[in-house]
Structures are given as structure tokens and as C-alpha cells.
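User: I'm writing a short report section on ligand binding and want a predicted complex to refer to. Could you take this sequence and pyridoxal-5'-phosphate and write out the structure as C-alpha cells? A short remark afterwards would be nice.
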Amino acid sequence: MPPSKTPRSLEHSNALRERARRVVPGLAQTFSKGPLSFVGGVAPSFVSHASGAHVWDVDGNRYIDYILGLGPVILGHAHEAVNQAVAAQLARGTAFSLSHPGEVQLSELLCELIPCAEMVRFGKNGSDATSGAIRLARACTGRDKVARCGYHGWQDWYIGSTSRHKGVPEAVRALTLSFPYNGLDALDALFRAHRGEIACVILEPVTFDEPAAGYLAGVRDLCHREGALLVFDEVITGFRLHLGGAQSYFGVTPDLACFGKAMANGFPLSAIAGRADYMRQFEEVFFSFTFGGEAASIAAALATIGTMRSEPVVEALWSNGAALREGANAIIEESGLREHFTWAGLAPWTTLRCLGPAAARSLEWRSLFQQECLEQGILTHGNHMLSFAHGPEIVAATLDAYRAVFPVMAEAAAGGGPERFLRGAPMQAVMRQS
Ligand SMILES: Cc1ncc(COP(=O)(O)O)c(C=O)c1O
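Assistant: Sure. The C-alpha cells for the complex follow:
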């Protein structure tokens, strides 16, 4: 199916946005779904529905979806087996006042698949899992400070360490220390400067730069030398790189790991998994909420992970992702843009990286890319987040679209930059990692 082409009307989207201005501060529930993350006036603001690899906005325009609800939709939107499992659970109730057998079944399944998982607790958002892991690490070590690298959600302990820290007390901010990825010396120096104070190191095992040889094992060894726990934030990598998470893919087992997003194909569920001696502290540590164990999402996770086991989902993410990355890089090359852009990252999750002089204005360049993609029927923040529904046909349609997108980027590169070609306000950074 070719993507839908211009002209697009955004009339209904724009009307809803005007209504939202009166009642929804920030206009969306998530920064990444709101105005900061899309080119003003060019992008739709409201989605009507989605199926497989496609999403339709409220004006009926169809897009190939590379945002996928910010990552959860690993099988494709409205996946039949997941919907059926959820429907069956809906008919039997979703919120109970005792535990449900599905919680035990899903915990057993995760313990079978994930190397560090000896016990498991569930949350709803990735932030529940990362914040629960931090509290657990503090309880296990009796230490207050945390070293972090990467994005870990909305809670005080993490967001206070970024530029978007309004509302977070200084005393809390002072407890979170940042370190750069792939720099063992910097982490070592942090441990030496805060000897005996760091409860844990939390990091995304990989984003768009691969770990240097020995890096992840080196982080683990440093943590253990210093009596701190190693926590892998696998909220994105979990199930996308490997059914056992990035820890299986890279062969480095952390003490605790956090999962979310893709584990239930769009239903709200997250998990902390880890060593039993640490996890047992949850008998005392408060990690407890009304919707913990909510049964529809547990059913969705059992169906999602079941499908990932019975069908070659992860293999398809790798092979289709590689075809897309290589095809897109060839189009960049053909467009004479090799020195400006490249698609970076492991095949299931890649990003359009701006190079050389383009790097200084990467938000503007990525905005131009988004604008031109929207005109070609592709919804993107400039990443390839693939689902199982993004098969070879979708990859081919995307590459066809890119044959129209990158020549515009080339014209902009030759003609003084992206600003002249943008038809609305560019995307803005939600925050800076300080
Ligand atoms: C690596 C990582 N950790 C944690 C989170 C927080 O998850 P949530 O937004 O579900 O709270 C995110 C969300 O994007 C994430 O990408």
C-alpha cells in the first residue's frame, strides 16, 4: 500500500487543538506527543485510530507510524491475538481485590526469559519501574545517591537531574549524579568522589551508540567493587533487541532491570525484575498502588510475549530494520548528503543522526525531515521504531517516500539550511540532560 499523499487537511485536528487549549495544559498528556515534538501547523495533533503499521489522524489522513505510541506497539497496532486476550479478560473483570493467577504466570515467564530475573514486580509506566528500582537499591544499600545515564521517566529523582527540573526540591536534585555513556573513567571518578554513597548505577544498556568493547561488563564490575547495584533501564531495549532484553543480547547481567513499553503491545504495564535477595526487600519497601496487577494489561503481556515467542518477531525487527537503515542510508548517499546525515543505531531502533555542520542545528534538520515525511504519509520524530507489522512492503513504501524527502533536504543543504524550507515552528528539545 503506498502511503497517503498530499494535500492533507488538518481541519479537525486544529479545531480539537483549539478546544484543548482551554482544558489541557501542555495540549497533550506526554511531552513527546505535544507541540514541542512536532512541526507547528504541519503535523496533526490528534489520532483517530490505528491498525498494523498505520495510524489515521482525525481528518482521515493515513500515515506509516514510526513512533508507535512512543515505543510500546511492538507487534503492530490493534494486534488480533492481543486484542482477543484482552477482550477475554475484560469479560472476566480487570480490577480485583486479591492477586490474579496471571501475575504469577507472567512473573514465571519473565524469569524464564530474562537472565537477571529471579523475581518480578509490576508497575504501569516505565517511571514506576525505574523509581521502584531506585528505592529498592537505596533500601538494599542504605545509601542515598544514584548515578544515572540516559532517560528514566518523570519522577523527581531523575527529572530533577535534567534542565526540566521545575518543582523538584534542590535536596532531591543533589542526590542524582550524571555520567556519560561509554566512559568508564568518568564513572570511576564519580564513585571515587562519592565513595560509599552511591546506591546504584542506572543506565540504558544501549541507545544509538553501541557500547564499547567491555563497557557494560566494566560498569557492572565497578558497581560491584563499590558495593552499588547495577540497574539496566530496559524500558526501550526490553524485548526489542532480544526476548531476554539487551542483557541477553550483550551478555551482561545486571542486579535489577526495568521493563515497560513493548511488553504489552500498548497496554499499560511495566516490570522490575532482578536478583531474589534484592527483590525480597519489596516485602518492606513501599511499591504498591491500586492498579498494580490490573488484569487486562497482564493478559495483553502474556499474549504479546507469547506471540513474540511463537513467531519470529525479534528476527523481523532486526532484518526489516536493517533493510530500512541500509536503504535509507543509500538514499542519503544518492542525495549527496553523506556528510550531513546517517541512520545510526541497532536495526530494531535507529535514528536520523545529523553530522558535521548539520549537528549544530539538528532540531531544525529533524523538523524538516518530519515535515517532508508527513507530506509523504509518514509519522515520525526522526527515528525508526519498528513493529512486527513493519514488513518488507512497509519498508519499501518508506524508502519510496524517502526518495522524495531527501532531495528536499539536499536542496535545503545547498540553499543555506532547513529554516527557509520549514513551514512551521521547528520541534524543540523537551529537556537537556545536564
Ligand atoms: C529508557 C526509558 N526509561 C524510562 C522511561 C519512562 O517510561 P514511562 O514514560 O512509561 O514512565 C522511558 C520513556 O520513554 C524510557 O525511554
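A remark for your report: The radius of gyration is 22 Å. Residues 96-293 form a domain with the Aspartate Aminotransferase; domain 2 fold (CATH 3.40.640.10).
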